[in-house]
């Protein structure tokens, strides 16, 4: 007997494809988070080095223009650190959103998979009923023939 087709096969394949795509997006978001973390660490390190350099230069005689230039550089570096931290926060949020999306897609995939399993059970049960009916008809026909003899 030909096995009946699962009508939601295309949906199951689509859910599997969506899961693969979401995993790729999560991997990319994770890479962006790692890069943002490295960038934030690098800019914070540069800020610390610049603050140390400013402390050392203020101990010696420094012209006001040089001091102002160093302070402007320090302010700029602090802004870069703040931007790097914001970028890191955004990357973390994006990664978390991708994780949530994967969980949702996984649940949808499992729902369709359960429907497929139920469909398979229904098909098996129907085949068993048909076989049982055929056996009953065969047994009844045999019994009627034996009673006629």
**Oligomerization state of this entry?**
single chain
Which value, in Å, is the CA radius of gyration?
35 Å
Task: Quote the distance from N terminus to C terminus.
Answer: 35 Å
Helix content: over 70%
Mean pLDDT: 88
Series of H and E elements: HH
Structural class: mainly alpha
Poorly predicted runs are none
How many strands, which pairing sense, and closed or not: the largest β-sheet?
Answer: none
Q: How many β-strand stretches? A: 0
Count of alpha and pi helical runs:
2
Based on CA inertia axes, which overall geometry fits?
Answer: rod-shaped
What does this structure look like?
The chain is mainly α and about 150 residues long. About 90% of the residues lie in helices and about 0% in strands. The protein has two helices and no strands. Helix 1 packs antiparallel against helix 2. It starts with 8 loop residues before the first helix and ends with a helix. The model has no long low-confidence stretch (mean pLDDT about 90).
Task: Give a short summary of the structure.
This protein is mainly alpha-helical and 149 residues long. It contains two helices and no strands.
Main traits of this protein?
single chain, 149 residues, mainly alpha, rod-shaped
What layout of secondary structure does this protein have?
Layout: H1 9-59, H2 64-148
